[in-house]
Amino acid sequence: MKNLQETMKQLQKASESLSKLSLDHEHPWKALSQMNQILDANFWDHLTNLTTTTASHATQQAGEIIPAVSKQKKKAKEQQPMIVSRSNSNGFPAMDIFQTEHLVILCCELPGFARDSLEVTLTEQRTLELKGMIKKPDHNRSCILQERAYGAFYRLIELPVSVSAKGMKAQYEDGILELYLPRDGTPKERKTTFRAKL
């Protein structure tokens, strides 16, 4: 408990120091240097300690047993694709990304979106922006329960490999938008914006 109190004091001290920084918009490097000094390794150690202690306390209260984590050396020969699960992500639209030898495929849940509103921007062949509009139903005025979201949506996605906008295909069926982007390791496209024809 004493260790936790010390951690909280250190984090509060760092927070107060950050709030006192003055930012000169013409020369921001001095403030960045000061922030770097405040957010040093010691700060991150305290933050990790706080997170670990809180998680441990919450688990004990729930009566769960935390399994021991064993550290194993990774085998260099066995490389399996890494799957990033974001089931608790607040990103909208929800999506899955697949990678094959020649393609990167994005599958997005977009029920009821206006097909002509979809705008896709590819920057530096690795960052994809999706913009569009989800239409409101015609009978929206008589709504007594609303759980679905309407209006403009925006999602920024970092792709696992470089892709090309040339040859991109899009299809929309049963509320699922699929984008097929050819993999391309040669850097040539800085920014490409296009409207997908669905």
Automatic annotation (TrEMBL):
A Pfam family hit: HSP20
Domain of life: Bacteria
InterPro entries linked: A-crystallin/Hsp20_dom (IPR002068), HSP20-like_chaperone (IPR008978), Small_HSP (IPR031107)
Record-annotated SHSP domain positions: 86-198
PANTHER family recorded: HEAT-SHOCK PROTEIN 20 FAMILY MEMBER (PTHR11527)
Family: Belongs to the small heat shock protein (HSP20) family.
Annotated protein name in UniProt: Hsp20/alpha crystallin family protein
Lineage of producing organism: Bacteria, Bacillati, Bacillota, Bacilli, Bacillales
